[in-house]
Structures
1.
Amino acid sequence: SRFYRSPEILLGLPYSSRIDMWSLGCIVAELYLGLPLFPGSSEYNQLSRIVDLLGTPPRVMLEKARRTDEFFNYLGPSTWDFKPMEQFSRERNTEEKESKRYFNATTLEELITTYPIRRRMTEPEQEREYQSRFALIDFLRGLLQLDPNRRWSPQQASMHPFITGEALTGSFVPPPISRDPHDPSGATGPYAGVVLAGC
């Protein structure tokens, strides 16, 4: 489904099994919020929602992506700006329209922390709730890394306190994981040795 499509797919970059970790992040957020995190009505709208919440993809992605010029204006060395809907529609001869927005938050942190809390919770329950939200935000940051080379692997994600139930006292830094040489996601360097995106 488009809602769970990773940035590298949308931009036409090589991709690996890391696309599944992006999809997992979208699903975890949806289970918590009760609504899709990025319910795009088109590829342009999908990427627009991702940029609005998580920011512009890093330079190394935009320099290598075959569809960068389709979605972004080049402003100068290492600088791109997401194209306004009117410009994209005119250039692509399409009729992009504003789609419904379920959330007003402008960052992932704001989205999770401002989500309504259940009524009649005791102070200890509220404290546990906010600790859980803190862990969820940190967990989602690792899964929803725009750069797939920085996105956590399944093994790394499984070590996060949000999964293990341990207390999270600061930003989680997963240990390096030795990769299966037959797994495309184990390539080294930006987008090396992976399958070319065809969708």
Note: The radius of gyration is 18 Å.
2.
Amino acid sequence: MRYAVLVCGPAGAGKSTLCTSLLTHLHTVKRTGHLFNLDPAATDNSFAEHAPTIDIRQLISLEDVMSEMGYGPNGGLVYCFEYLLQHMDWLDEELGEYDNDYLVIDCPGQIELYTHHPILPALLNHLQRQGIRTCAVYLLESQFMEDKYKYFAGVMSAMSAMVNLEVPWINIMSKMDLITPGGAEVPRNGVRGKKDIARYLDPDPYLLSDENTSIAKSNPRFHALNEAIVKLIEDHPLVSFLPLDLTDPDSLEAILSHIDYTIQYGEDEEPLEVSTN
């Protein structure tokens, strides 16, 4: 059985860092993992520790598309993925026979690829048809907790991506070391208590309604929009986050355990026979 983890989320959320940390941890515990770079705009400097086993840039790169086709970055990125979908035989050959291996797929940070484009759903469906158990992890960085409106925009984008991609899903709040106390240094984004953090890991829509009292009279349309978002999140509580602090090995191990459970890693393996000699 083959397994794939799609690591996605907005730019700057720590996707490549998580991919690197996952691969390092897998190698440490004697498990085999491979990096699949799905970002045609990536640079070689992005892969200092683990070179990609599969790299979309070997098929097509954003730099070539922009120079030869005259597209901008976003249009060029969409073109790269459309080109990939037209050449899935290349991907099938690259996938090879990775039995019982993890494919850690590092995705670009353009959020529209996850929320409403049909490109990634088509790619994931193809992987599943190839017998690869696939799940997605969606990263949102802890800095979003500093602005409640920005945070709920992130929650809504995660919900939209979940609905669009239709695969087993894990949401992760990354860079938690920036808001939790660690040693003598004060975290960059300030210290938060456990109860306060819990309201963001399991989104509490009343965080948003708390802000409405001061603006209800001054901006009633904005107030009405916030109330509609609160109702949507209450009616469809699909999103919750696992905290990720890469300075804590136990945090990464917890994330990997959730991924293993989600894709049912190793459940098809036969039990080892005990030697009687």
Note: The CA atoms of residues 15 and 55 lie 16 Å apart.
